[in-house]
Amino acid sequence: MYKYDQYDQAIVDARVDEFRDQVKRRLAGEITEDQFKPLRLMNGLYLQLHAYMLRVAIPYGTLDGRQMRMLGHIARTYDRGYGHFTTRQNLQYNWIKLEDTPDILADLATVEMHAIQTSGNCIRNISSDQYAGAAADEVADPRPWAELIRQWSTFHPEFSYLPRKFKFAVIASDEDRAAMRLHDIGIQLVKRDGVLGAKIFVGGGMGRTPMIGPEIKEFVTADDLMSYLEACLRVYNRYGRRDNMYKARIKILVHEIGADDYRRQVEEEFAQVKLLGIDPPAAELARITAMFAEPSYEIDAVDDIDRGDPDFAVWVDQNVVAHKQPGYAIVNISLKPVGGIPGDASADQIDLMADLAEKYSFDELRVTHAQNIVLPHVRKADLYTLWQTLDNAGLASANLDLISDIIACPGLDYCSLANARSIPVAQKIATRFASLDRQRDLGELKLKISGCINACGHHHAGHIGILGVDRKGVENYQLLLGGSGAEDVSLGKITGPGFSEDGIVDAIERVTDRYVSLREDGERFLDTYRRVGMEPFKEAIYG
Amino acid sequence: MKILTGNDLPTGDVIWWTGSGWSRHVAQAADVGEIGETLGAEEEAARRVNGPYVIEATDTPDGPRPAHIKDRVRALGPTVRPDLTLKPGDAAAIEAIPHV
Prior knowledge:
The complex is a heterodimer of chains A (about 550) and B (about 100). With about 550 residues, chain A is of the alpha+beta class. Chain A folds into four domains: about 5-110, Sulfite Reductase Hemoprotein, domain 2 (Alpha-Beta Complex); about 135-290, Sulfite Reductase Hemoprotein, domain 1; about 310-390, Alpha-Beta Plaits, CATH 3.30.70.3340; about 410-540, Sulfite Reductase Hemoprotein, domain 1, CATH 3.30.413. Chain A is built from 17 helices and 20 strands. Chain A has helices spanning about 5-25, 35-40, 65-75, 100-110, 145-155, 225-240, 250-255, 260-275, 280-290, 310-320, 345-360, 385-390, 425-430, 435-440, 500-520, 525-530, 535-540, and strands at about 45, 50-55, 60-65, 80-85, 90-95, 125-130, 170, 185-190, 195-200, 215-220, 320, 330-335, 345, 365, 375-380, 405-410, 445-450, 465-470, 475-480, 495. In chain A, α15 crosses α16. The longest helix of chain A is centred in the first third of the chain and has 22 residues, at about 5-25. Chain B has one domain (about 1-100). The interface between A and B is medium-sized, with 30 and 24 residues.
């Protein structure tokens, strides 16, 4: 885990003091809402449908028990007893009072946290692979690089007022667990002839104009990475459109001038930037990397799991993932109980997960973009006891990557931008498919719901996606099939006319029934869809 | 009818103009006719409301009912957390939630 140095802490503390003064002046009427709004947004404070909403940054989704417990404390003390984990690996509070916000930020600062870069046209919180440092298939730990990008981007004077918001993802495996190619810049760490470097993808994204980021650089050495990223941003900052917010993302620029021309301009810029000495000295990189050293694993940890309890065995099969260290496992805690609100956790559950991280996972937790929590380093010998504790707290849903493991944005229940509710649809689908046997028979099926075209619920990347729209004041739901945010990335296609809230649930059942009748051995839903195409599903849906 | 809404500045709570002040209950909202925008600007300048705006509503025996679903959700609270609505324990209010 990265630990703040004196500079990090001083920056965050100063920001809290600054915002405390800004809030004081706003409440005293010394500044107007128009003047205050950009200031509060720079500190993660939105005004949403019912109240202020505070979005707290969780850099690359990594936090420790002390930080997690602070999130629970804030939920209990300043909010209404719960928090919402987001698709950006962050956490949102829905019922924050403006007058409390300086104290909340001060509390966060005591555990090396903040809400900076969670809003505004800046480089947002860096996302990464939730299994970083634990997965067997990574060529290096991506977190030191994500941390380096975090430090480079924080208050970067050139990149604090970009044409639009800007999102990075860093992974280090061929398996993409972070929807990397649907980011403004996606970085995949790779090795060539034993040398660490990165593939760079630029211009991906979801929203109203979804695009898969094209490869811009096949290999940039780690020594040049930061300079290359600076060049990528400079070209965007120079040519990105500021006259039309719907055409301001880098994906539009790359699409309009073409990947080849964008690449050429980046290379020209890189030649200049490289002379500036932006890339970190080896000692600084080593300092950061050392903070992500491997935990002190037990060398002779037991590598077997007693599967005598059938419910436990199902949970192991579904939610526990192989770890690179013999005797250890990666545990996924699903925040998707049937009928629950995807991504929500109560203050008590947050506290419990903090306790479990400290007791069983070397004091580490991860937040996933699928709105679940990961304990990355658990001894296999501890799995049964851990599962029993989770089960008692309603946190042992064995549904990872199944149809009820739904990504859903807050939708019209909370969000002022939304056109339709997402959460009730997720709840109805999960309830319709509540049988775990049925879910497991359907296999991997990633269902994602957004309540508006901004696509916070990643509907474009769902094997099954749902987009809520407003049709003459009535909620209506469009159905998409065939998307993926993984290494087999693709964008879903709309099936046809939309549905009512109940109609969309029926339509999904017709889709899954048709899949069951069409699938061949070993085929996931997505595989079958890609083999047979849209037509058989349209026929099932619309008759 | 037209009613005036916004958020309380220090707390962010959804509030409604009653004719003489602000309430957290849409049932107490008053018809502002054509003066809503002017009234909202004056109240915002006095920091008694943040981001005021006028919406259409229908007059019902239970009070004004916002015309658009977004404002009905604002008025009541998240439909998925009846325990957090303005009328916890009010069976009629909770029953009405799925039909906002």
